[in-house]
Amino acid sequence: MAEDRDDDDAELFRAAIGPVRRIRETAPPPTAPRPRPRARMTERDEAHARDEFRHALSSSAEPLEAGDALSYRREELSPRVLQRLKRGEIAVQEELDLHGSDAREAEQLLRAFLRDAAQHGVGCVRIIHGKGLHGHASIASGGMPVLKNLVDRLLRHRADVLAFHSAPSTQGGTGAVLVLLAPRRPR
């Protein structure tokens, strides 16, 4: 009896609906591509190593003060080249202004800027970090210029940096640094 009732219900439904037309089947919509796999453990380990590296740098190096000049030269580079850089005789091809950036953002901007400069074969750049005169306003900085010290530490440990020196007074003085980059190696 239950089957008769089901048949009657189905018949009533078809009578109520009327004639039906079959819809053409369409291809299913495309699915979003799967995200590329990430090495999360490696990323975490590298982040931890960077934090340890920063901590080691900040504890071992004497922090720079607002009026201190930045200066660095690799051994293989002639002192005369550093003197030319110090006097501003080497033409600056690109510039990065870090004013208003916090330390984390400034580090990311600086790394990306230097990577881009190296890829495009840029030889000399100017990085404006500010003089750090407002460092006394921040308790966390200990009164030291945060961006200036960050730029100094980061540039000293880059393989593509041959030399750097605070800019001449006409180009920003101790609030900017001129950086001489290694020439791009052909691949």
TrEMBL record:
- This chain's protein is named DNA-nicking Smr family endonuclease
Q: Where is this region: Disordered?
A: 17-50
Q: Which Pfam families match?
A: Smr
SUPFAM superfamilies named in the record: SMR domain-like
- Where is this chain compositionally biased, Basic and acidic residues type? 40-50
- Name the PANTHER family on file: DNA ENDONUCLEASE SMRA-RELATED
Recite the UniProt keywords alphabetically: Endonuclease, Hydrolase, Nuclease
**One Gene Ontology MF term:** endonuclease activity
All copies of the Smr domain together span 96-182
InterPro entries attached to this UniProt entry: Smr_dom, Smr_dom_sf
